[in-house]
Amino acid sequence: MKSLIGNDWDAILDPVFASNEYHQLHNFLKEEYATKRIHPDMYHIFEAFKLTSFADTKVVILGQDPYHNPGQAHGLSFSVQQGVALPPSLVNIYKELQDDLGIPPVATGCLDSWAKEGVLLLNSVLTVVEYHPNSHQGKGWELVTDQAIKKLSEKGHVVFILWGKFAQSKIKYIDKSKNTIIASAHPSPLSAYRGFFGSKPFSKCNEALRQYGESPIDWRIKN
User: Fold this and answer.
1) Given this model, what pLDDT does residue 2 score?
2) How many Cβ atoms sit within 10 Å of the Cβ of residue 55?
3) Closest to 88 in 3D by CA, of 74, 61, 69, 75
4) Contacts for 97 with CB less than 8 Å, ≥ 6 apart
5) Nearest CA to 118 among 162, 179, 203, 56?
6) Which residues in 108-141 are b (16+ Cβ under 10 Å) and which e?
7) Phi, psi (degrees; rounded to nearest 5) at 79
8) ∠ CA(195), CA(67), CA(135), 5° rounding?
């Protein structure tokens, strides 16, 4: 078994890590990191899995691929590194968080504290070429992240927060009889006013967790 993550995700994802498809992805990434500027750095590719173990995952917030500007991505969907200006989507997430739960926006966009609460901040594709969004789509990452979604669905009592059409394309992997799906428009400025604002995903998530007998998420940013 490959120990790429260092917790129970290794066993969950081992069939994928042992596959020829993942071996091809690995070789592709070695060449990409050697010849291009790729985000996040190679030590943070699996950060979402490292910070939120399979057993501890209560909520999934699914993104598409990492931020592609320098210094932003660090392996968690929608999150940026400490000291980096908030991206527009995250500004809107904070606005909805305040409207929903009364939690005021903060200056930091680092969402580590959510990850440590049991929120898996998962991108479908885990790497990207600088300034080239979606550049690593279809290269093999989907095998890894789709497997993670499927296994969490099998576990059950997980809340999947799916913002936008891309995230919602993964609904086919989620057993709605065992889990909760909270879907709305994406928080991007292009779509936030089409159903993201006012959707109250954070309070809805905590209500679902209470119904499952789980402790609610503390959505305050504590960095």
Assistant:
1) 64
2) 11
3) 69
4) 103, 105, 202, 219
5) 56
6) bbbbbbbbebbbbbbbbbbbbbeeeeebbeebbb
7) -95, 150
8) 105
Name the percent of the chain in helix, strand, coil, to the closest 5: 40, 10, 50
Structure token digits, residue 100: 């929903």
Query: Could you tell me the end-to-end alpha-carbon distance of the chain, in angstroms, rounded to an integer?
Result: 34
| Three-state helix/strand/coil letters over 27-56 | HHHHHHHHHCCEECCHHHCCHHHHHCCCCC
Q: Are 192 and 81 in contact (CB under 8 A)?
A: no
Q: Which residues contact 177 (CB under 8 A, 6 or more apart)?
A: none
160: enclosing H helix or E strand: strand 159-163
Query: Do 214 and 194 meet the contact criterion of CB atoms below 8 Å apart?
Result: no
pLDDT at 202: 98
At residue 19's C-alpha, the angle toward residues 18 and 20, to 5°, is 130
Beta bridge partners of 63: 123
Q: Mind listing the pLDDT tens digit for each residue in 115-151?
A: 999 999 999 999 999 999 999 999 999 999 999 999 9
Query: What positions carry a catalytic annotation?
Result: 65
What is the distance between the alpha carbons of residues 95 and 109, in angstroms, rounded to a whole number? 13
Q: What is the mean pLDDT of residues 167-181?
A: 97
pTM: 0.97
Cα 17 to its chain centre, rounded Å, is 19
Average pLDDT over residues 25-42: 97
